[in-house]
Design brief:
The complex is a heterodimer of chains A (about 80) and B (about 725). Chain A is α+β, with helices and mostly antiparallel strands. Chain A has a single domain, classed as Ubiquitin-like (UB roll). Helices cover about 20% and strands about 25% of the residues of chain A. Chain A contains two helices and five strands, in the order E-H-E-H-E-E-E. Chain A starts with a strand and ends in a 6-residue tail after the last strand. Chain B is an alpha+beta fold and about 725 residues long. Chain B folds into three domains: about 230 residues, Aldehyde ferredoxin oxidoreductase, N-terminal domain (Aldehyde Ferredoxin Oxidoreductase,  A, domain 1, 4-Layer Sandwich); about 210 residues, Aldehyde Ferredoxin Oxidoreductase Protein, subunit A, domain 2 (Orthogonal Bundle), CATH 1.10.569.10; about 160 residues, no CATH class. In chain B, about 45% of the residues lie in helices and about 15% in strands. Chain B contains 31 helices and 17 strands. The longest helix of chain B is centred in the C-terminal third of the chain and has 26 residues. Classes of the chains: A alpha+beta (about 80), B alpha+beta (about 725). The interface between A and B is medium-sized, with 25 and 42 residues.
Amino acid sequence: MIASIKFLGMQRVLTNTDSIDMPINGNTMVSDALQYVRRQYPTLPLEERMILITVNHEAASPDRILKDKDTISFLPLIAGG
Amino acid sequence: MKILRQTKYKPARVLGGYTDRILRVDLGKQEITIQELPPDFKNKYVGGRGYALKLIWDGTTRETHYDSPENILVMSSGPLGNEPAFPGTGKFIVGTISPLTDTFIDSNIGGHFGPILKRAGFDALAVSGISKKDVVILVDGDAQTISIAEAPAYDKEIDDGALSFGERLLKDVNNGELSDSLAAVTAGKGACNARFGIVNSLFFDVRRKRIRSKQAGRGGTGTVMRYKRLRGVVARSSLSVVNGNNAIDKEGVRQAGSKLKAVVSKCDTQQLNLSAWGTTGLSEYMDKFHLFPINNYQYGQSPESPRLFAQVFLDKYFSKKIPDGCYYGCNLACAKGSENVELTRGPKAGKVVNIDGPEYETVGAVSCMGIFDPQFVMEYNWYCDEYGIDTISTGVTISFFMECFQRGFLNADDVGYELTFGNTEAVDRLLHEIADGRGFGKVVGQGIARGKKWVAQKHASRNGTSGDAVMAELNKFGMEVKGLEFSMYITKESLAQQGGYGFALKGPQHDEAWLIFIDQVHKELPTLEDKANALKWFPLIRTWFNATGLCKLPWIDVRNPEAASTAEPSKNLPTLAYYLAYLNATTGSNKTLQDVLDDSERLYVLQKLINLRHGKGTRASDQIPWRAIGPAYFNEYEARAEYYDEWLKQQLGDNKIPASPEQRHELLMKKRVEAYQHLCDIVYEKKGFTSEGIPKHETVEKFGLMDEQAKQMLSQLDVNK
């Protein structure tokens, strides 16, 4: 099974890619995806208190179990100017 | 420059954020008056929007329109709007009776004008009357003079442009030199010909060594300025910008500012990166969540959108890859700009210009017309600023007429050419027609509310159908409320933001409430009660920013990490605590957050009273177009049918979903309309209003606003004790 991690905005620029795939099993959680990205891109700023984690366009908690073809993003906390 | 009237004065010293003086200029009588304010004025009306509201409430009547001599154009900063030790403090408000909404409008604007006006001795400038000839006002704190002068005539090209004229004027009054001791506000020729004219705020940027500009874009404040035949206002003061508010507790200000600067410095680069990208960074996130307006808000996402993402502007246009503020000391510094851009279109093709922007809203206004060309965005941005017209209302109004064309309500004979989505040539032509007040531009320059009537009449007479029936269709996709065009966010999937736009007292501008993400993505507002609470709290705190001379972005768009451990992270309360400390240190007060919210609620209720007086204050005026509530037409439903069917299933259960897509679309819209009406009921109750959206007697009394005018008006509306 595969989950896709999408990079937007500054993350896309820093990683130089739109997305990466991550192999998952039935126990893989959102927090594992976060660790996976941190290992791949150690300089990418991903402090948990400063990002909104979404799975398939909706906010998700770190302990959510991932399913095949889920799309994960780590977004800034947008609140509108 | 020929001086028509001049007064000597002794500038009042700023103390605790205030000078306690308003400069009043009657252009009809050529009178210059300095109004001394009693101490309770600032306690009750705070500054900025509050001052504008009070002057308009007292000085105008229900018969006052934008072009009435007694209409007042108010420019006012606020007690906190002048402090380099704290980020985001250069803002001021331009408030008046609007040519678009026929009620109070205000628009906030950055730059140096508000702070310099204060250092020159005034908390606000209030201009009334209509001059017999074009004039400028000069407020010179150094020479201690206030003058009304005949507007200088340079040459037509310069005189027509808000930016060109302003720059020349600033040089003219300073022996040919640009200086950061001066700033100006101006309006261009487009403001004479369209109802959505803007006020430009021009200042000398010592880092870029050129004049830069920010805009009070919404609601036609520039149109009022030009109707008064006021071409520009220049303020001068050489007093130090340091400790510009002369705070009561300077060390308290320094500490509060240091804390906010530390959060901005640490967090912005990890979040929206406004310091590098400006607000253009939002386009990508809006597109991802179907919030980026495409083809008059029909769609929220397009495969072509990446051509308008931030990196494109950073790589191709933004000439300084550095933080770039619109006032001293702001380390969020999101005011991006470009030098030496060659125009390729319009009457100035070939000219090389400096461009301030684009902001996200301008990018969204262009995508709304179905155009995805970044060079066009830059040129559209420059022409709108130079002409003095609002990039948002211009783009959204053109988009409305494009959809009229798409759906057969207009044809090429009506317009003079094919006005189709994505037709850059047509938009380019129309933009200049609007500014010049010629051709189809004369119609578009009236805005959507008046445009709908024009189209309905034309279509009905051509086809022999009922004008009311045509109007009912146009109301589905004419993206305006109270006469103001929507700003650039799609609200279809966020009930809370539908309220954020519908209840906004000035009309659908996001500076009162922007709840899309916390509602639609974070799911932090699951119940109507949660949404209603947010629709009370956010407009009040945002009102306070507009009353005090502050930019909201360092608070709302840079999340303090400590907010994560609070009950409502989206309120970013740890950062708001710095603002409270800054307020109390500046003014010597000891206010709590609840005190601040109460102060704001007084202003909010006063604005509501003005809306009521002008016929824009009841439930009927809070109704929003179908397009804002859901997929108004079947093509929009079809584009996301799976998503909408899932939404219906969640509302009704699997078994109750109609078989045909057409029935599902119809049912979906019925449910959405019902939900919005329920929201109205609950929000009005929370705000202390009747079910018709009118403030209850006790609500008006609670905030000390029950004067004779309010009493009579509530009585006429059958709102009694």
